[in-house]
UniProtKB/TrEMBL annotation:
Residues 30-133 form the DUF4440 domain. It comes from Algoriphagus halophilus. Pfam families: DUF4440. This is DUF4440 domain-containing protein. SUPFAM superfamilies: NTF2-like.
Length: 149
């Protein structure tokens, strides 16, 4: 019994370390979360700086490049009102980072508020001192979908 209790205590103490994020992962996670707020605020100046000039965007209604995404956000033809992030996984390899966010997105589209469950894939590349988004893809999922860590 004593061994089981000690093992349980060690497991509980060490579990947070298994999920600890590196400084780069923390930086990428903050950038990803900031991006959701910038989209809600329609802050195209900050988004223009974040999006690489060759970035691609994939949505339920189509795919396009940076200029069109910024136009959509600025005009409010899609207003990303709120992204409730339920789970995030980040993998970094060299100067590339991939982020998966499982979200419930509330958006104003074609005159209506809509709510959808997505897993959003974001690909970032370190360019000089800045991270630039190269890919932003929405995948429609059920609310029971889980991101494998």
């Amino acid at each position: 019994m004593k061994k089981v209790l000690i093992l349980l205590i060690i497991t509980l103490i060490s579990t947070p370390w298994l999920y600890a994020q590196s400084p780069v992962e923390q930086e990428i996670k903050k950038l990803s979360m900031d991006k959701w707020q910038w989209m809600a605020d329609k802050d195209v100046a900050k988004l223009e700086n974040l999006f690489d000039d060759k970035a691609k965007f994939v949505h339920m209604s189509g795919s396009w490049k940076k200029e069109r995404e910024l136009e959509i956000i600025e005009t409010g033809s899609i207003w990303y009102k709120n992204a409730e992030v339920h789970d995030t996984a980040i993998e970094v390899s060299g100067n590339t980072a991939v982020v998966w966010n499982r979200i419930t997105l509330t958006a104003f589209v074609r005159g209506n508020d809509v709510e959808n469950e997505f897993t959003v894939t974001e690909v970032y590349q370190k360019q000089g001192d800045d991270w630039k988004m190269l890919v932003f893809t929405f995948s429609s999922v059920r609310d029971t979908h889980e991101i494998e860590h």
